[in-house]
Every structure is written in C-alpha cells, then in structure tokens.
Amino acid sequence: RSLERILAIEPDNAEAATLLAPIYEARNDVRKLPQVLEIVLENTHEPAARYDLFVRLAELQAKQLRDPESALQNYVEALAIRPEAEPLYRAMLDTAERAGDWQNLDSAWADARMALEGDDAHRDAWLKLTRMHGNMLEVRRNDDDAALDAADAILSQIPGDDEALSVRERIFRRREAWDY
Asked: DSSP string of 10-63?
C-alpha cells in the first residue's frame, strides 16, 4: 500500500512502479499492471529492456485486457527495436486482425523489412517477414501491386523462389481474368 501511496504522490516514480509490477502480476491485477509497466517503460532506456516491456505490455493488452489497438501499437514499438524478432510477426498479424488495423501493420512491417534488408545475419527473418507482409498485402489489403513488390524483393535475393513465383503467377492470372 505504501508503494501505491508513493505513486499517488509521484505518478512517475519508476522505483515504486518497478516494485509494484511483480506484485500486480502475482495478484493478476490486470487493471493496475499496465499503468505501472508504462511508468517503468518511460524510465527505461536500454533497448533490450524496452523491447521486453513493450512485448509484456502488448501481450497483457492483447490477451487479458482485450485491447488489440493498444497491443498492436506496443508490438510496433517492440518491432522497431528488434525487427529480427520473428515471434512478433505472428503476434502482430493476429492482433491486427482483431483490431482490423492493416495500415499500421503494413507500415511497421515495411519499416522492419527495410531495417533487415541486406543484413546477412537476419536473412531468414527478412525472408519470413517479407513473405508474411506480401501475403497480408494481397489477402487483407487487396494491394496486388505491393504484394508483387514483396515477391520481387524475394526474387531479387533468391532467384527462382517457388513461393514468390507462385504469388506472381496468381496475381497475374487474376489480372488476366479482369481483362476479359
């Protein structure tokens, strides 16, 4: 209770918030936990710690608070810190689906792809993200041109890639059907 009183007097007290977070987690107090995590986040500057806090907050918002819009925004922030973090890709896709927010997902994934492009250490992450992004663009946003761009990006790195060629063929066949 005294830690809560400290926060009532000093709403940005990171020490009190840091001590309260595990208490609220142990109690499963999802009403108070996001507030203290946000205070801790505002006072955390180390990228790995910020990444962990963004993900923790996003998972809480997505799963327990049923707030996919806020969750997606926190996943976006986490991805900006670690664009190679493959587990985020599926979580972001699922959250965007619940939020109906394909625009923010598109923008975040485009930024992450650019950050990873040409980085040999994270080539597999770039490839996975580019495939997922292209699929989302084609299926969810109905943006065949952007989906083709994603397929072409893959083909520029991996000539003859079967999945990318299949995307191109499917889109070109659909376009051909429109011409008749």
From this structure: -TT-HHHHHHHHHHHHHHT-TTTHHHHHHHHHHT---HHHHHHHHHHHHHIIII
167 vs 7: which has the higher pLDDT:
167
Rg of the chain in Å (alpha carbons)? 20
Element (H, E) at 157: helix 144-157
CA–CA separation, 37 and 17 (whole Å): 7
Average per-residue pLDDT in the chain?
Answer: 94
pTM, to two decimals? 0.90
Interval 17-21 mean pLDDT: 94
Joined tokens for residue 65: 């608070």
Q: What pLDDT, on the 0 to 100 scale, is given for residue 180?
A: 45
CA distances from 84 to 80, 92, 172, 180 (A): 9, 13, 31, 43
Give the Cα separation of 171 and 167 in Å (integer).
6
